[in-house]
Write a structure and sequence with these properties.
This protein has helices at 36-51, 58-65, 69-75, 79-102, 108-124, 130-133, 148-169, 172-179, 183-190, 201-219, 226-244. By secondary structure, the protein is mostly helical. α7 (148-169) runs antiparallel to α8.
């Protein structure tokens, strides 16, 4: 996945249409449990993946959802805003969690493990076919340059958390040498996006569990200590989710 992947800077304040009553639809709402905004995003991601960003129109997206085009514009200013919102749906939660973790007095290894676990869960929530969206060529153009800022911040946060974890585990010289490979932790997490194509949810969760354990092994955590680190990380995430009201996709990762 390129650096133009999960990258979206989100402007401060409320998103367009958030917290406001929607406009009338041109067709009855389907009973799928999704808000109109989520239905629009789901339709946009499918059409972007099937026919490309350039060939997809807001009218096609509105027709797919069964709403008027004016209703779509009530939620999103234009097609670009739709794509930015799709990309921000994964990076923004990870950044919020990382900030919270960084403000807590946690063991550095547990802190990194918690971020990896949270980020994997966020990516596994993917309802929007993002593994296709991330490969749209338009993401490499100047029009989307501003959206890359948040991705850079997240990647740098992984690096900072990794260096702190290494420093807590190894002598300075060894920690510095190992730090050269720590981008692999971020890469392991990002690779989970492709698991949508790997045969269903169970395979994706299996990969997530392996990625979590693999991240700790890259740090040099002893195999016997990994279950305890994961348990402590999941407790930290339980505290975070209780504070922000964000339930996990499922009850933690297998620490085995």
């Amino acid at each position: 996945m390129t650096d133009a992947g999960r990258q979206a800077a989100v402007p401060p304040g409320r998103q367009p249409g958030e917290g406001k009553p929607g406009r009338p639809r041109s067709a009855p709402k389907r009973h799928n449990g999704l808000s109109t905004r989520e239905e629009i995003l789901q339709a946009a991601s499918r059409l972007f993946g099937e026919q490309g960003y350039a060939k997809t129109t807001t009218r096609q997206i509105a027709d797919t959802v069964g709403i008027k085009q004016s209703t779509l514009y009530y939620h999103f200013a234009d097609k670009r805003a739709l794509l930015v919102s799709l990309l921000s749906s994964t990076v923004t939660p990870a950044l919020a969690c990382a900030r919270w973790l960084g403000e807590r007095d946690l063991d550095p290894v547990v802190r990194l493990c918690a971020l990896v676990s949270f980020d994997l869960d966020t990516l596994l929530r993917d309802r929007h076919n993002l593994h296709v969206v991330y490969h749209l060529p338009e993401l490499e153009t100047d029009d989307f340059t501003p959206t890359r800022a948040a991705q850079t911040v997240l990647r740098d946060t992984y690096r900072d958390f990794s260096r702190a974890a290494l420093a807590s585990l190894h002598p300075p010289r060894e920690a510095a040498e190992l730090a050269e490979d720590m981008d692999l932790v971020f890469a392991l997490v990002e690779a989970s996006v492709s698991q949508r194509q790997w045969g269903g949810e169970e395979n994706r969760f299996r990969y997530a569990t392996s990625a979590l354990r693999g991240s700790l092994r890259l740090l040099g955590v002893a195999r016997a200590d990994i279950p305890d680190v994961i348990t402590r990380a999941e407790q930290a995430l339980a505290d975070y989710r209780a504070e922000v009201g964000d339930p996990p996709l499922r009850s933690g990762h297998d620490a085995g």
